[in-house]
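User: For documentation purposes, I need each entry recorded in a consistent format: the amino acid sequence on its own, followed directly by the corresponding structure tokens. There are two entries in this batch. Please keep commentary to a minimum and don't merge the entries.

Assistant: Recorded as requested. Entry 1:
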Amino acid sequence: MDHVRVVPGLALRRARVLLLLGPQAQQAEHTCRGEAEGGRAVTVLAGYAPGHRLSGVLELASAVATALDENLLVATVTPPRWNVPSLARVDAEFAQWAEQQGDETLAEARSALERLAPELPVSYRRVDHRSASSALLSIAEETSASVVVVGSCEDGRRGWVELGSTSDSLVHSARLPVAIAPRGYEGPGPGQGFSSITCAVTEHDAEADAAIIAMAAYLAGRAGVPLRLVTFAVRLGTMYPSYVGYGVEDELADAAREHAETLFARWRGAGVIADDVETVVGLGHGWRAAMDSIAWDDAGLLILGSKPHGTLSQVFLGSSATKIVRHSPIPVLVLPAG
């Protein structure tokens, strides 16, 4: 199969995640990056906003850092000082308020992480910027971060991934992996990593899917947790009136499920996935039902890839990936394309 032969090349182009998983590569990455934030190399960046305690970002960031055996940098972004001074010194009062908000946010994060991951090396930073996503990407580039972790918006549904302005901007522009926590995410437990990894494929690009599977398998093996492969056969609404029969949508869904099972079998035969890897097809009337048809591990992680858009090695979610993210009940790690 042609897509099997290109997996190594595709995986190398996504080496930002893959290289982090090997001890020799970790040492090389630390050497290239140098020392930062109090003498420790920073690899996992978490964006924590004031008043977003239920976003789940701290719980997910500590789990990611624990799983990768890396340090954690927590950053909060506050509004910048006004460009035009105020005669009434309102600008100075605003700057003082913003600084106080940032300091209180970091103190809140520090208190939470002392409970969540007391042994995890954590550093903190406050930065003034008009755009939280731009600030996080700037910090990520400066520190050579391996992944940026964000939470769901505060007004979203508890227990589900809800993209806010910052997370939505990141998943459409970042050149590094982006991890998103469901609102209210409690994590796998203090000092614990993930207990399972699920890799979602959309079947739109066999070569890209094979590369994503290879990385998910490597990560699962590195963490010593089981890997599961999922795809989805979403049943559309019944056409009315129908000239092709009222059961045609069911027939299409059944055909999609059979196609997915055939693809899984081909991947097993080609060695893309091991014989012990569980494969599941989510089937339902709409994406919510299709996602709900699958049993999810609360301490698990969902991995999926993005599609190329503009600059290579950039995260950009296609329509199917976007729906998977928006309906996921567990944290999602989105890998950049290319």
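Entry 2:
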Amino acid sequence: MTFHDPLALLLLLIMPIVFIIRKRRNQTAQLSFTDVQIMQGLPNTPRQQLAAMLPAARWLAIALAILALARPQLVVREKTITSRGIDMALALDISTSMLAIDRTAIAKGKPRLQIAKDVIKEFVSKRTSDRIGLVAFAARPYPVAPLTTDHQWLISAVEQLDTGAIEDGTAIGDALLAAVNRLRSSPAASRTILLITDGRNNSGAVAPAVAAQAAKALGIKVNAIGIGGKGGADFPVEDPFGGITYREVKADLDVPTLTDIARITNGRFFLADDADALRTIFKEIDRLEKQPIEEKVSNSAQELFAPFLLAAFTLLAAESLLGATWLRRMP
């Protein structure tokens, strides 16, 4: 609460001075008694106690009137976002090759897909002003989530992704085009696709270069992220005698194609050979993909003087009425 005319509150400082002056004037006795013990024997009734409180009601009414004079106001702060952040689509490879475990100290024991999901969830949780959509792909793309600001739901959708839900393969071109379709009607000033894969295009009807040209025509930037260490990886396979065994596989990442996609769309290509590198890449993307949020802030004031003034008048009226009737004193 604030006051429109705070200088009026200085009148509150005068009240103690007036109170002291009046108290000194009223110290002269109104009646004289030859024997003070006569008065001491009189009972102190509730009526007398209420009568003694009437001056306090008057002083309180004056204080409330002064507060009303200062015009107390409740300031309501309104914030309107006039432009929003980036609209972004994630295209995540969930082909079986993403089950491979790269032979690095940091990534050991964790498949590529799980590493990618962990980093994506961390990334999404920080992009509070962005609408983010999700496309998963293997031999064909699968639209998982539309553009949304419900990031908790999106993080839950990312966590549920797994290989085997779509026939195996790597349709980079089709996946990229599906992500473009997610963004084509977006009114955002900046639109970006993050393409994450560990392979090369071997499925689908659309060539990656064609999909990249479509993104460029719509002003959509693609940041391509290749996953996979150069030192090979271990791929889990079922053992005929039970359990899981691992066989060595070589990296099959199509770096030239991913680089071309990024170049055509004015994006960047990143190579992540372990979990730490992938986190660093997403931090860099988080730094680069920023859009200023313009906010229009306005303040409105709700006047509160009426309740104070009403309370002051009520107290004065009650004090005058009771003082003239039931609590009337002798002259």
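Summary note for entry 2:
The chain has a mean pLDDT of 82.
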